[in-house]
Design goal:
Blueprint (H helix, E strand, L loop, with lengths): L3 E4 L2 E4 L4 E7 L7 E8 L6 E6 L6 E3 L7 E6 L4 E6 L8 E9 L12 E2 L3 E6 L1
Parallel strand pairs: 2-11
Antiparallel strand pairs: 1-3, 3-8, 4-5, 4-9, 5-6, 7-8, 9-10, 9-11
């Protein structure tokens, strides 16, 4: 089973950018669908973006479409979330998750391995 660790969070002004990284252990990273989720205080965890094994298929929440980009490099066992034009409502703890299988799910309950999360704070 793959283990994932996020990094790259921080404090940024509205309109700024951040790039989150998700480093995965194990030799089967290319067999996992990767997803990014976020959870703001007092709210449920929500889907942000997901990417297929090969990176050819990506999905985004409507709230981030056009601003965020998910990508991966299987040779580096790493996935990224590039976040541009950040808004205060993007403030949350961001989680990377891995899902064994080919279905590129947007449902958090279908992901098996989760990181500890990284805080993203966007000031107005």
């Amino acid at each position: 089973q793959v283990h994932v660790v996020e990094s790259g969070g921080g404090l940024v002004q509205a309109g700024g950018s951040l790039r989150l990284s998700c480093a995965a252990s194990g030799r089967t990273f290319s067999s996992y669908v990767m997803g990014w989720f976020r959870q703001a205080p007092g709210k449920e965890r929500e889907f942000v973006a997901s990417i297929s094994w090969t990176g050819t298929s990506t999905y985004y929440a409507d709230s981030v479409k056009g601003r965020f980009t998910i990508s991966r490099d299987n040779a580096k066992n790493t996935a990224w979330l590039q976040m541009n034009s950040l808004k205060p409502e993007d403030t949350a703890v961001y989680y990377c998750a891995a899902r064994r299988g080919s279905y590129v799910s947007t449902a958090p309950e279908q992901y098996h391995s989760w990181g500890q999360g990284t805080q993203v704070t966007v000031s107005s």
